[in-house]
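Hey, I was hoping to borrow your eyes for a little while. I've dropped the whole record in just underneath, so have a look:

——
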Amino acid sequence: MRLEAKRVSKTFRSRRGGHAVSAVKEASFVAQPGQFVAIVGESGSGKSTLARLLLYLIEPTSGSVELDGAPVNRRDRAAAISYRRNVQAVLQDPAGSLNPRKRIDQTIGEVIRLHDIARRAADVRRKTEEVLDIVGMSPAERFLDRYPHELSGGQRQRVLIARAIALNPKIIVADEAISALDASVKAGVLKVMVDLKERLGVGYVFITHDLPVVRKVADYVYVMKAGEIVEHGEKDKIFDSPAHPYTRMLLDSAPVLPSHRPPAHEEGIR
């Protein structure tokens, strides 16, 4: 399976038809299962807009987003549902992405039922427990009846990952998914993501400004500046022999990633 953006552009215009802003300019991009692809750049570089295009939350002004060569079309409901199952999202703000009035079992279970992964209550519960175990929230029974405010930030992010993998996606688009977490908690969530790549063959589109993290986990890197992809290549090539002045500037300004062990008592890491 191949997720691809072909010369995708997105221009936003004011409601009165005045000033236009080109957020993404003819960006071409490829992601596949089992591959950790990072998109890096400063704030305002167009990374999150590209993520929304890849998730087809917004339509491109020009160009196309394709899955296995077939253009994505939100107007075709069956195709859109299939796309959602194969390409899932994990976003920056777990608190804002979880309904505060729903327990964790409801949050994950409703997605399982909606996509016909399971229908019977016992099967839905079994699948919910399975995905919570996979992301390190074990024993799952401890978390099923909790509400989002009863979880730590890292645990909430794990719930989002669990909800995503409940659909057995081929690719997860993670937009600044760990940026709001403390360093030690961030390490634990990253470990979960890498484990899923190795165990389940999940691919990632990992959007971040955190270059030390990218150096640690990415296979391939795209560099964005002012809506354009100015450089891309294998991780070692980008970090060891950057060709574009902007890439060199980003690398020169990047901090060194400290070594932290995730707090197992808080995050439930096995």
Summary: Strands lie at 3-13, 20-31, 36-40, 62-67, 70-71, 87-90, 171-175, 203-208, 220-225, 228-234.
